[in-house]
Amino acid sequence: MGGRFVILSAGMGAGHHAVAGELSHRLTGRGHRVATLDVLDLLPAGTGAALRGFYAATIRYTPALYEAIYRAYFVPRPPAGPGRPHPGPDTSPVVAPAARELRRRLAGERPDAVLATFHLAAQVTGRLRDAGALSCPSIVVVTDFAVHRQWLHPANDLHLCPTRQTAEDVGRLGGGAAEAVGPVVPAAFHAPPDPARTARFARRFAALAPGRTPVLLSSGAWGVASHLARTAALLRDGGYLPVVMCGRSRSLRRRLGRVRGTVALGWVADVPALMAAAGALVENAAGQTAAQALAAGLPVVTHRPIPGHGAAGARRMAEAGLSALADGPADLLRALADLTCDGPVRQARIAAGRDLFRADAADAVLAAADRTDGGSPAWRDTGPREQRDGSRRLPGR
Q1: What fold is seen in the domain 188-355?
Q2: What's the rounded mean pLDDT across residues 100-128?
Q3: Rg of the chain over all Cα atoms, to the nearest angstrom
Q4: Looking at residue 91, what is its pLDDT?
Q5: Of 66, 110, 253, 283, which is most buried, counting CB atoms within 10 Å of its CB?
Q6: Given this chain, do its domains 4-185+358-388 and 188-355 carry the same CATH topology?
Q7: Closest Cα partner for 140 from 131, 41, 155?
Q8: pLDDT at 174 exceeding the cut of 50
Q9: Looking at 160-174, 209-223, 250-264, 365-379, which range is the least confident one?
Q10: What residue spans define the domains of the chain?
Q11: What pLDDT is recorded for position 58?
Q12: pLDDT tier at 358 (50, 70, 90 boundaries)?
């Protein structure tokens, strides 16, 4: 008989739900039962929607305010020592009510593990685990390339991280055990799509701009980007075909559709085929679209990143050799010249991205659930090297 797992996600953009959905797909495919909850729905009526609306409006209209909030409440602080057990604040007014509601919903049946794919969810599970109110393992699936302190609560049993650097940061900042498994993306991004699917995009692009290399511009599910029309015009004038992924923003699609020599797309269902028809991805958030491109072998350039976690993640991706960080227009064109030309630079970047996917997060979840009893995690008493070495493999790997 399979186990039971609960995934705690959040409808902030589409990335956290995408990771939760893929984890659910992998676990149910192994015969387990999975329930997915939105942590914002655990808050008192209207609170979750207000948080989502505030975040969306802030990053869209007042990015300087979001940067200030990020610096005040998210930028990591190394633990000060034994007197400060928690690396991040657990005093947010929204954590306690969400934790109470989650505890109520889990009262009927004990899951084998609870997974958090959003930082508020990680604080909620850590709070319950620390209080002894959650008797199963709590596993945090970090979706950012740069871990911030809201992801970290030392009472959580395990952090599954996209890179070795991220896993090392979790340990260094006091978050506890961490494993580098790579980003969680669907299997469709790891294998070449059916050529017929890719050909549909390729024919369309070739008809619009013969001889020009299509370059994708991503603005996330909400269509948030800075000076995107200016970037599209820059690429057009540089000899490329800018193909803008406008997400669910109809206004952005209308606006970009008026930029000469630009293809403005709405919500795209077949992203693997679209990526296979492009020469590079220009993105601004170091999020799920970037992770999908790394799996698909599409070189990534970050330009004009959104403030806070977007800019921090872009730096960490570049430092890990996974992407290029273009600070200005000239840098962007230079990076694309290297990465859209089939040569050693492009091939090295593709290899680095694909090498990132070193393990299956679902296997790590099942291993953690198997080796943890109903009380303390089995590795809670191990030495600091075993807890914090991001390169340590799970048993049987």
Answers
A1: Rossmann fold (3.40.50)
A2: 94
A3: 21
A4: 57
A5: 283
A6: yes
A7: 155
A8: yes
A9: 365-379
A10: 4-185+358-388, 188-355
A11: 85
A12: confident
Q: What is the 3-state secondary structure (H, E, C) of the chain?
A: CCCEEEEEECCCCCHHHHHHHHHHHHHHHCCCEEEEEEHHHHCCCCHHHHHHHHHHHHHHHCHHHHHHHHHHHCCCCCCCCCCCCCCCCCCCCCHHHHHHHHHHHHCCCCCCEEEECCHHHHHHHHHHHHCCCCCCCEEEECCCCCCCHHHCCCCCCEEEECCHHHHHHHHHCCCCCEEECCCCCCHHHCCCCCHHHHHHHHHHHHHHCCCCEEEEEECCCCCCCCCHHHHHHHHHHCCEEEEEECCCCHHHHHHHHCCCCCEEECCCCCHHHHHHCCCEEEECCCCHHHHHHHHHCCCEEEECCCCCHHHHHHHHHHHCCCCEEECCHHHHHHHHHHHCCCCHHHHHHHHHHHHCCCCCHHHHHHHHHHCCCCCCCCCCCCCHHHHHCCCCCCCCC
Q: Distance (Å, rounded) from C-alpha 310 to C-alpha 72?
A: 16
When pLDDT is averaged across residues 223-231 and rounded to a whole number, the result is 87
Neighbours of 79 (CB within 10 A): 18
Burial of 104 (0-12, 13-18, 19+ CB in 10 A): exposed
CATH topology of domain 4-185+358-388: Rossmann fold (3.40.50)
d(CA 111, CA 108): 10
Place of tokens 């206004």: 251
CB 300 within 8 A of CB 290: yes
Tokens of 345: 């630079």
Check: CB of residue 14 under 8 Å from CB of residue 220: yes
Q: What is the pLDDT of residue 13?
A: 79
Q: Band of the pLDDT at 77, cuts 50, 70, 90? A: confident
Separation CA 266–CA 253 (nearest Å): 7
What pLDDT, on a 0 to 100 scale, did the predictor assign at position 109?
82
Query: What residue type is 74 in one-letter code?
Result: F
